[in-house]
Amino acid sequence: MSKEVTEEGEASQQVRDYVDPPPAPLFDAQELSLWSFYRAVIAEFVATLLFLYITIATVIGYNKQADNPCETVGLLGVAWAFGGMIFILVYSTAGISGGHINPAVTFGLLLIRKVSLIRAIAYMVAQCLGAICGVGIVKGILEDYYEDVGGGANTVSPLYSKGTALGAEIIGTFVLVYTVLSATDPKRNARDSHVPVLAPLPIGFAVFLVHLATIPITGTGINPARSFGAAVIYNKDKAWDDQWIFWVGPFLGALAAALYHQFVLRATAIKALGSFTSQPG
User: Fold this and answer.
1) Contacts for 70 with CB less than 8 Å, ≥ 6 apart
2) d(CA 252, CA 173)
3) What is the C-alpha to C-alpha distance for residues 235 and 140, in angstroms, rounded to an integer?
4) Which pLDDT tens digit goes with each residue over 244-255?
């Protein structure tokens, strides 16, 4: 076993043609003095606001004509709205803030030390505030229909148990965060020069496909800011009763995706052990 680990560690050193960026410090108070930090936080706020405005308006339009689906975009169109907006917004903001637009994504990147704790907290607060503002704009524009169709809030379908809903949120968020980590992996960026340009595309498709699978179960959260913003503006008991599912599920899914990416796909532990056992003496 030690020979295999040693050989794998030596091979990884020989073929590596990229350099991993150093891990972000857990606490970096110096960030608070940089304009780039506040610019990134503002970008996350605006991106999440736009995301919620377009998607919740689409959901309300779909629900308003539930008795005649031919007059609306349908479930497929709702899924496209979420996936398409993520594609657009990640592409637009990736160079400024990283294009998280989701506390679960931010949490996953924090776990693998791509962002500091201070930046992660600031992003999550900005995302939640942006979501509240985005849904608030929708309510102001579509006030006649907003309350009647549930305000676009995430709730568990009566056909499914809360356990099933929690599982759907965990798996759905795992798919999303796994895709984000894989699409932005510096190893792939070094090997395939087109990857940084195309990264928003698989991320958007992941959101689209997860929505197709889980809209009938939970309306699809996989984004605590999206669920929280809709619940705050709608503010009905049903939305708050199920709210914990849309926080616990995504954060557990992000945790599982981060562990899988780091310790299985990138074999961090094996590489470290290989490096250790290959030292002389």
Assistant:
1) none
2) 8
3) 15
4) 999 999 999 999
